UniProtKB/TrEMBL annotation:
<dbReference type="InterPro" id="IPR004380">
    <property type="entry name" value="Asp_race"/>
</dbReference>
<comment type="similarity">
    <text>Belongs to the aspartate/glutamate racemases family.</text>
</comment>
<dbReference type="InterPro" id="IPR015942">
    <property type="entry name" value="Asp/Glu/hydantoin_racemase"/>
</dbReference>
<dbReference type="InterPro" id="IPR001920">
    <property type="entry name" value="Asp/Glu_race"/>
</dbReference>
<keyword id="KW-0413">Isomerase</keyword>
<dbReference type="GO" id="GO:0047689">
    <property type="term" value="F:aspartate racemase activity"/>
</dbReference>
<protein>
    <submittedName>
        <fullName>Aspartate racemase</fullName>
        <ecNumber>5.1.1.13</ecNumber>
    </submittedName>
</protein>
<dbReference type="Pfam" id="PF01177">
    <property type="entry name" value="Asp_Glu_race"/>
</dbReference>
Length: 240
């Protein structure tokens, strides 16, 4: 079976990008056996540059960098593009418009799994940008018909702080795991039937046993969807 080349836009942060690389290669080995591994390319950012643009609200500059990264992957021979972060799907539409390759949006395979499980009302954890802006929630609601709950203001601040002050720096603190458990519990009290780990680093901290409802880890789901596409016959069309 011929593999397509996965183009990974990574480095946001490298900790979660390393998980993408691991999961993708493990799944290819599981599917094909033997010594098989994934055919992939990765463009990895210096995350300090991206983080500074995010928090300075310089999204146009960040978009230009993301487009450049995707175009580098296209020139390098990628068959489709995967943005290895939830937050930077804020500019997924602009990136898709600037390249001639499909872009596998992180929200779509996540929503597909949730709907396949018969669930509709979901909690969303992520950076403040992901939880508060409409680029991610709106896609889940409008394209997939989900009802999305986000934490209250204080809980959103805690979730965001832990991501940037700890997880992207490779720190996994037990106190933060407990804080996330409490945030999840409050979402469940409000009716969440499942919780989306909508930041690719959260899977480093939160485990299934930390939640009374199913957790949907976007890192693993996105990586597995990339493998499905890479091993599909000639590449099934990706919804735009």
């Amino acid at each position: 079976m011929s593999q397509k080349v996965i183009g990974l836009v990574g480095g946001m942060s490298w900790e979660s990008s390393a998980e993408y690389y691991r999961i993708i290669n493990e799944r290819v080995r599981d599917r094909l056996g033997g010594l098989h591994s994934a055919r992939c390319l990765m463009w990895s950012f210096d995350f300090a540059e991206i983080e500074a643009l995010q928090h300075a609200d310089r999204w146009d500059d960040a978009t230009a960098l993301m487009i450049e990264a995707a175009q580098r992957l296209e020139r390098g021979g990628a068959d489709f593009v995967v943005i290895c972060t939830n937050t930077m799907h804020r500019m997924a539409g602009q990136v898709q418009a600037a390249i001639g390759l499909p872009l596998l949006h992180i929200a779509d395979p996540t929503a597909d799994r949730i709907r396949a499980a018969g669930l509709r009302r979901v909690g969303l954890l992520g950076t403040a940008f992901t939880m508060e802006q409409d680029f991610y929630k709106g896609r889940l609601v409008e394209r997939h018909g989900l009802e999305v709950l986000v934490p209250g203001e204080e809980d959103r601040a805690v979730v965001h702080r832990v991501i940037y002050d700890e997880l992207v720096q490779g720190r996994v603190e037990e106190a933060s795991r407990q804080a996330y458990r409490e945030v999840i519990a409050r979402l469940v009290e409000r009716g969440a039937e499942a919780v989306i780990l909508g930041c690719t680093e959260i899977m480093l901290l939160v485990r299934p046993e930390d939640s009374p409802v199913p957790l949907y880890d976007t890192t693993t789901i996105h990586a597995e969807a990339a493998v499905d596409l890479a091993l599909s016959e000639y590449g099934a069309a990706i919804p735009g």
